Amino acid sequence: MPSLRCSFFGGTLTPFLYPALCASSRASIARRCPLHARYSSTTTGSTYDPPVLPAAHDSHLDPTPDNYSLTPFADRCIVTAEAGSGGHGCVSFLREKYIEEGPANGGDGGSGGNVYIQAVRGETSLHKLARRRLIKAGRGRNGQGKLRGGERGEDVLITVPVGTIVREILRHDAIADEIAEQWRNERQPPKEQTEEEEASSYRKDKWLVFPGMVPSELNRMTFPVLPAPRKSHLAALQPQAPIWLDLDKHMETPLLLAAGAMGGLGNPHFVLPNQSRPKMATRGDEGMKVSMQLELKILADLGLVGLPNAGKSTLTRALTNSRARVGSWAFTTLQPNVGTVVLDNHKGRPAVMKRRRDGELRENFLIADVPGLIEDAHLDKGLGLGFLRHVERAAVLAFVIDLSAGDAVAALKLLWREVSEYESLQGKELNAATERRMVTYSPGKITSNQGDPFGDLDPPDLNSLKPLPFLTSTSITSKPWLVVGTKADLPETQANYEALQRYLGEVKSGAQPHPSNRKNAWKHKVQSVPISAIKGEGVEVIPQLVMDLLDE
Ligand SMILES: Nc1nc2c(ncn2[C@@H]2O[C@H](COP(=O)(O)OP(=O)(O)OP(=O)(O)O)[C@@H](O)[C@H]2O)c(=O)[nH]1
Ligand SMILES: [Mg+2]
């Protein structure tokens, strides 16, 4: 046996799985670990009756294929947020005993509801939004008589998982266009316009007249100059167009996406010296619509990368309360699972003490378990590389390697090759394809009231797309990583693990290149840990290891 030094966890854990690696602690381990006893019974010839283990499927770590919870998941969607329209102004007159024809007293319409967005920790998927497509804030209520203003429309809040990227595709904001138009007109030499011409235009989309008015009366009526288009003061808080947000932190307060439109003006606004009882009010403004592409790149602390069937989902189950699907076939997992590893359940001393950057004590961390990678995944084999976007932003990567499935070193190299392929594709085809497919920005040039640019949400013309800025994130190869050798309970996995450990030692010392063959890749503290996820052995060191690597 090569003389391997027992590392920090080698001393405490390896003996459970590989007793030969640490002979010193054998006696104490034999008492606790049936696995160890089984190993030694074969070597010493003593009779050991393995304890009666519960039926395999009783364990939540080795569940039947149908024992899983399928949480609906979507990592991208297109939604349209529509701010509430304003309520209409009211045409009303005071009527009291002895005052038959009282003055105008119509209230103004209420302003529309706002649309807010907030990234919150509890959310893990965009599926709820993907189903909705249109998210509409409430319309303001109409004004009423006795100068009562309309109620404000109800606000809506879009909650998204932390790690969501929001990119605007299309916008329709009639009022902003009107303001821009007015601004342009002011710059031009004023046109000769008679007062009559200016004042007498009736626009059905702008004016509201006294109910019961006959057309002939309407024709005779003179309308005042339309009030200038107005925007809510809140509109100043909207992000600049085009919206491009990376919501990578939990937000305590929501962010305003689209402010509600202003309500219409009641008839007292149109009182003139020669027209004391105006029979018109203005309609509420139309709420702006913004169509956005949301993309979730899960912000987990630990991302699991492995070949299909390596045991990633079993490991996730062992560390968390997740009920990820486990099966003895490739591609059991078809969508990412996010699990929360509880470090402190507030029932005594925390399992692992770790503070966040802001000094707050960590109570948990997130694991992202994604579908397996296969060789040439970058050529779109298997499930491709797209879901690596969910480990791309993980702080630490864990390469999960099945020790019973052949050369562990070769498997690790293969995984790194695919991961670095993903990284190099990242700046090129993947983004270009995504951009081509999903993203276009054309500020609302269609302002006619007849044509609704939002009738069809598909990007209008694929050739006219202007790519948006790409996300900049730390490169995957510079992230700290560790190797988790699973299925160490199976026979004849020890030599494989030892070879892996030797290889990692060489990578660390520089005798071997980094498995991704990239320079400046992180390798100085790389470690491996043998575990049996199905028995839950060895997994308890992983939280501590990950927390240590988070500081890197
Ligand atoms: N003996 C043993 N079997 C294990 C261990 N971990 C997982 N398995 C088995 O390996 C098989 C695959 O496990 P999964 O957790 O579904 O593997 P996965 O990597 O998530 O697979 P995909 O989702 O297809 O990529 C299952 O039959 C598990 O019971 C282990 O530590 N020891
Ligand atoms: Mg799986």
From TrEMBL:
GO terms for molecular function: GTP binding; GTPase activity. The keyword Amino-acid biosynthesis does not apply. This is GTP-binding protein Obg/CgtA. Residues 71-299 form the Obg domain. Residues 300-551 form the OBG-type G domain. One of its GO terms (cellular component) is mitochondrion. The keyword GTP-binding applies. Pfam families: GTP1_OBG, MMR_HSR1. It comes from Melanomma pulvis-pyrius CBS 109.77. Residues 181-193 have a biased composition (Basic and acidic residues). Keywords: GTP-binding, Nucleotide-binding. Residues 181-201 are annotated as: Disordered. Signal peptide: none annotated. GO terms for biological process: ribosome biogenesis.
